[in-house]
Amino acid sequence: MLTNKRLILSHFWLAFIVFGAALVLGAWQMFVRSPLNTWHFNPEFYYRSVTAHGSAMGYVFPTLIAMGFGYAITEASLGKELVGRRWAWAGFFLVAVGAVVAMIPVSLGLASVLYTFYPPMVGNPFYYIGVVMVVVGSWIWVALMVINFVIWKRDNPDKPVPLAMYANVAGCLLWGWTAVGAALEILFLILPVALGLRSTIDAGLARVFFSWTLHAIVYFWLIPTYIAYYTIFPRAIGGRLYSDAMARISFILFVVVAMPIGVHHLFADPQVGAGIKFMHSVFTGLVALPTLLTVFTICASAEIASRLRGGQGAFGWIRSLPWSNPIMLATALSLVMLGFGGAGGLINMSYQLDATVHNTQWITGHFHLIFGGAIVIMYFAIAYDLWPHLTGRALDSFGMMRTQLWLWFIGMIVTTFPWHYVGILGMPRRMAFYDYANPAIAPQAFSVTMSAIGGFILLLSGVLFLLVLIRGQFGARDEAAAYRFAVPLHMPARIPVALNSFGLWLALMVGLTVVNYGFPIAQLMALSETNVPAVYVGAGR
Amino acid sequence: MSDHPLFSTRNPWFGISVGITAGVAVLSAVVGLIWLPLLQPHLQLTGVWDAICSAAGVPRAAVQETAVKPDFKTSNVVMTSEMLTKADQVSIGRGATLAQRCAICHGPQGVSDAHSPNLAGQFAAVTYKELNDFKTGARVSVVMSPFAAAMSDQDMKDVAAYYAYLPRVPSNNLDTGRPAPAVVVTGAPMRNIPPCGSCHGDIDNKAGSPWLGGQSVVYIKAQLEAFASGARRNDISQQMRNIARQMTAEEIDQVAHYYEAQP
Predict the structure, then answer these.
(1) Burial, A440: exposed, middle or buried (Cβ in 10 Å; 0-12, 13-18, 19+)?
(2) What is the mean pLDDT of each run of 10 residues along chain B (263 residues)?
(3) Nearest CA of chain B to the CA of A215: how many Å?
(4) A363-391: average pLDDT
């Protein structure tokens, strides 16, 4: 039962408009730094563009998707209207206004600090204020989801919370806690410097705070994708979810171990001890566990669907899957990209292997494959699945959807595989210009050209995606049946309280944060000689 | 729905999950903070506690060594990006009076054809730093050093504020249509040369980097050659020496002509 359709649709539309704009910037960036571009250009524009692309794709787009999808899940899975509709709109407008406030200084060249805004680089204060507004808007959503969860549990003390809602709240709690790191960094370290109250900054401490957010934010982006795997995919292909409990355990594992691992982004940083880095590395390894559980459960669910359709044999059942169904296609392509991206991730989290690829294009390739590939392709699937229920119109351009999904997959592979390769060759990331005429880097020219072509394939796919949605807005009126989620093979009548609540998991999440982050943060705060002069970006203009 | 209360040792979910989490944390701590550091002889650890402190990142006293001091003076000015950007009128006025003695070479309006740098509109931090370096001996000039020796810190700030206050005047060789050489626009990454404009103002201004537009070609060339040869070494952390050493004579010539033609 979707009541607040306009609210949900607004989130999705704004998310995809931002996505479209950022995608154009991305393709432009691919072009100007490739050998295809033979003209000199102002490299400053490149950094403006990277900042806008990263901030839009990292902070605004997935947050709006998670928020809109979260509201849809609340109403559809709990079967009642969202509590706090006005607050939800307030959150939406905070995110929208925050995005504009952040983008103005970026487009003026006053905050070309990239979306990671690593100090001592300091940009215009409005960039940070905008980012904080986006985060605060999303915190309203976190609070609303928790409130709706608690109210429903109070009204239904003997029923298990529907899986989709349970997973949704898991994502909220993870985001609520992980965003605290960057919020502390911005409020207490960066903003005083950006506003001119101080001129030095503890860059090391700021980076540690940011790593608190930087890795778990990926899992916040990932949760809607995993919810789609577990609760949309089995239903869409006419099967059942293999295990409800396994799904809950996967989301719980994300809540507990996604957080205390961010220091693996700081392997090359001197301000964190090697032992602390090792501990974070161990927990990073553990995060592979919920993903492996998920891949197993989703493949098992697919097998159930196939066998119900008459699929035979040890592998022959794969042929009997409904491949013409866009959700089927999207999920399969997503899992392939998740596999490659995950394998690369295991290399990044290993201290010694990371040294080879640290700050090279390998890293850019890695997170585009995981986020842009595996995660975003499921955002498309979520939109395709929800659209008829939100617009009350048929969404039936299936051929276009399949073409779009294939193009996204091919584009992402063509973009990121060469990136990984040139990363191994040592090509640094975040540079506007490469002199391909130089014999030392001339061999990278072909791969970079290839990845730029991949970028244009992605742009084409993005345009197709928006076309499908726009056609859906103007399609024939066709009131869809009530939105529902996948049913597990064995519907749980009773489940352990641990799998129906979050108290224990929150305690473990906060506890592990204290164990893994407590010492480095306390030490850096206690040391007095760790401040460095801020470097104001765009100060000379 | 509830079998045992969740936060109770009788609930197996509690015991198992807390046990596994704590077990992994303790095990990773023991391996990362004690075992692995002790396996590395070069750390010269004195025991378990030393290993823990070292691996946790507690700063350790460095081995006592006497630093090798250069046999020449280095700049003692600490540059920050906001430095001397807000001058008051009194300071500018004092600077105008003090600058009378500079006029013979640098021109009454901070512009001259004597191949000495044009100071009108120069960033205050730049003029201040150079005066300071002349005074301390970090930069040496038979003409400038005696002038600077007699100046107080406030005198230097005032003169710097005055010249920053004057409007920039284009040189007689102004030619804005002149194409920018590659080294100005993109630098030469493989030789570790950043684009000139990324510090000197066209793209971004980094504290202490002078505005180069309209400076005499003779002066720019002389300074780049002095940096390259090591005759001038008051650039902090050898920033300009490292760049100038990597530049070809042709590039130095192109850059000097390009900047002279800029406003």
Answers:
(1) exposed
(2) 73 92 95 94 88 89 74 87 85 94 91 90 94 94 93 95 91 85 84 88 82 92 95 92 95 94 89
(3) 19
(4) 96
CA–CA dist B65, A505 (Å, integer): 51
Element spanning B33, H or E: none
In this structure, are residues A322 and A384 in contact, taking their beta carbons and an 8 Å threshold?
no
Are A277 and A351 within 8 A, CB to CB?
A: yes
**Direct distance between the N- and C-terminal alpha carbons of chain A, in angstroms, rounded to an integer:** 54
d(CA A150, CA A236): 29
CATH number among 1.10.760.10, 1.10.3720.10, 3.30.1330.60, 3.40.50.10420, domain B89-164: 1.10.760.10
Distance CA B263, CA B259 (A): 8
At residue A327's C-alpha, the angle toward residues A321 and A328, to 5°, is 20
Amino acid A68 reads G
Sign of CA dihedral A173, A177, A178, A179: positive
**Which residue does chain B place closest to A47, by CA atoms?**
B203
Which residue in B21, B31, B33 is closest to A508 by CB distance?
Answer: B21
User: Cβ(A273)–Cβ(A339) under 8 Å?
Assistant: no
- Domain B182-260 sits in CATH 3.10.129.10: no
Return the structure tokens found at B58: 């507690």
Task: Say what the pLDDT of residue A458 is.
Answer: 98
Domain ranges of chain A: 5-536
Q: Which residues contact A37 (CB under 8 A, 6 or more apart)?
A: A31
When pLDDT is cut at 50, 70 and 90, the band that residue A541 belongs to is very low
| Cα separation values, A67 from A334, A384, B30, Å | 21, 17, 41
Give the active site residues of A: 215, 219, 366-368, 429-430
What's the ipTM? 0.88
For residue B70, what is the enclosing H or E element? none
Residues A5-536, CATH architecture: Up-down Bundle (1.20)
According to the model, what pLDDT value does residue B55 have? 93
pLDDT at B1: 43
The minimal CB distance from A494 to the residues B1, B33, B36 is found for B1
